[in-house]
Amino acid sequence: MKRVASRWLMAAGGLACLVPVLFLGLARLGAEGSAPAALASAPAADAPPATKLAVTRSVWEGVYSKEQLGRGQKAYNSLCARCHGDNLLGGEEATPLVGKEFLKNWTAKSVGALVEYTRKEMPSDGPGKLSRQQCADVTAFLLSANSFPAGSADLATDLEVTNQILINDKK
Ligand code: HEC
Fold first, then answer.
1. Interatomic CA distance for residues 96 and 103, integer angstroms
2. Cα 19 to averaged position of ligand 1 atoms, centre (Å)
């Protein structure tokens, strides 16, 4: 009788040891099992509704006006030229804002992204002070300098509009 009881005790002890191990294992499985699911669903939850991302125009379609270009050039001369140069070719202070290298950085992005970059990052030595109108105007000037044609209407200050215009170095 005594022997049998001690065997039971040993078995129970063994089980007691196994239980936490099992728990840990299950917890791990649970974590691993749910992680990819959470990752997969995150971008979908964060992404704006598809309609907002839809690109409806390209920079080849005349997305700014000649008048705006004039204002943009003035703004450029007073706010940007000291670093990016009178001819937009850049220099010691800054990168070029025309040509292959520049377009490579912005192709497949939206005009809205370019406007916002200027608004939030430029001038690099004191950003965040330009109005949305100034940023739209100066962006019109940059588009013109990169050979994208003028059209009949101003480039909007509304990001929802400019986010739908695609920068594309080829027609
Ligand atoms: C104080 C000097 C300075 C001034 C003034 C300045 N920038 Fe810049 N800009 C820079 C520097 C430096 C960079 C490169 C930043 C980097 O690579 O992180 C840059 C980068 C840029 C870029 C990105 C270029 C690319 O190839 O992606 C744009 C667009 C730009 N500037 C626009 C402007 C506009 C528009 C103005 C005027 C409103 C302006 N900058 C004024 C220094 C300046």
1. 10
2. 62
